[in-house]
Design brief:
The structure holds 2 protein chains of 2 kinds. Chain A is of the alpha+beta class. Chain A has 4 helices and 7 strands, in the order ββααβαβαβββ. In chain B, strand 5, helix 6 and strand 6 form a beta-alpha-beta unit. Classes of the chains: A alpha+beta, B alpha/beta. The complex binds guanosine-5'-triphosphate and magnesium ion. Magnesium ion binds next to helix 2 of chain B.
């Protein structure tokens, strides 16, 4: 996946940071978490081509908690695809070989992103403007 | 918990581990907010030790600090297993203090509660990585189990190679679906129960003894 950033000059647009597996590859856990949370703090939607491992997810939750504050940041919304629902990695998981851990992950600010629908083949997300 | 109780439990802990030769296994009760973790922890503690762990409430994030009940000795079929029960704050990826305001909580108190909740969740995640020997994952079986938090948490637990039981709680409610819970996590054993009503607790204790003994 190429790395794409759609920048908004208007100020009321929605910026999406798509981060390639390649970009994440050489990074330490905290570097990845910083990259994600910095994006989310800027009100961006962050899409990871290759998601986090469980230990990184655990640290992401921990770090997110410590950055929540009453004047603005309320945490993150996160969805992965394919999910581990059903244990076989779903359609895409089967296609790519079920032991392939790669999972597309969408992360955004909790107060602006809402998951409308999610199943094995689709994540539908509503992103609200400020 | 008072100083005396603390002292008493640490003495009994010291003596029991002296005789048993092993430390009790530390079993973390995890799950999303409001699933009934504290209600379960209290029931286990009351059934086997006589006292409770902490307050239960319909307000999410009632538990904001991990609380422990040490040396809970569960007797099953002539054998006994001793565990430390750790009730943890409900895990989430977001906390908005404004949600407390809907429960008739004043703004100052809501801000304080949300700060405590976030600290508690961080602490619970830390415990999960370092300090528990097994996990009871509690779900409200009237709710959709296919949430990202549940998927992530169970994944984290699996990656730590911890023994885990899934508890499908609140089966006393009409909308409860145990099947939906066991379908969500087919790789683990699901035990139905009502922590509030005490339904199916015999099987609960059998499974605890079997998995964590
Ligand atoms: N009907 C029913 N209600 C239950 C059951 N178990 C717990 N509850 C209720 O669910 C609500 C939440 O229970 P708690 O035990 O405080 O939940 P918790 O998981 O500890 O919640 P947090 O500490 O906020 O994460 C309370 O109103 C309980 O009375 C059950 O088996 N059946
Ligand atoms: Mg609780």
């Amino acid at each position: 996946m190429p790395e794409v950033t759609t920048d908004d000059d208007a100020g009321d647009g929605i910026q999406i940071d798509m981060i390639s597996a390649e970009r994440m590859e050489g990074m330490r856990t905290m570097e990845k978490i910083r990259l994600i949370l910095d994006g989310v703090h800027d009100d961006n939607i962050v899409i990871l081509e290759d998601g986090l491992d469980p230990d990184e997810e655990s640290k992401l939750i921990e770090r997110t908690m410590s950055e929540i504050n009453p004047d603005g940041f309320t945490g993150i919304e996160i969805e992965t695809y394919p999910g581990s629902d059903g244990g076989d990695g779903g359609f895409l998981g089967r296609l790519m070989g079920s032991d392939d851990p790669s999972k597309l992950t969408v992360i955004g600010p909790a107060n602006r992103i809402e998951t409308l629908h999610k199943d094995e083949t689709l994540i539908s997300t509503l992103v609200t403007r400020r | 918990m008072g100083l005396l109780t603390d002292l008493r439990s640490s003495i009994s802990r010291a003596t029991s581990s002296l005789f048993a030769g092993t430390e009790p296994k530390r079993i973390g009760i995890y799950g999303p907010p409001n699933a009934g973790k504290t209600t379960l922890a209290n029931r286990i503690a009351r059934d086997w030790t006589g006292d409770a762990v902490g307050p239960e409430s319909h307000v999410p994030h009632e538990t904001r600090r991990a609380r422990r009940k040490e040396n809970v000795e569960i007797k099953r079929n002539g054998k006994s297993v001793t565990i430390d029960v750790v009730d943890t704050p409900g895990v989430t990826t977001k906390v908005d203090y404004k949600e407390f305001l809907e429960h008739d909580i004043e703004e100052d108190d809501a801000v304080r509660r949300s700060r405590e909740a976030t600290e508690g969740v961080a602490e619970a995640m830390h415990w999960l990585r370092e300090d528990v020997d097994g996990v009871i994952y509690v779900l409200d079986s009237t709710e959709d189990p296919f949430t990202q938090v549940n998927t992530m948490l169970v994944g984290i637990i699996e990656s730590q190679d911890l023994p885990v039981l899934i508890f499908a709680n609140k089966i006393d409610l009409e909308e409860a679906s145990v099947q939906r819970v066991s379908n969500a996590f087919p790789q683990h054993e699901t035990v139905p129960l009502s922590a509030l009503e005490g339904d199916n607790m015999d099987e609960v204790y059998d499974k605890i003894a079997e998995h964590f003994g």
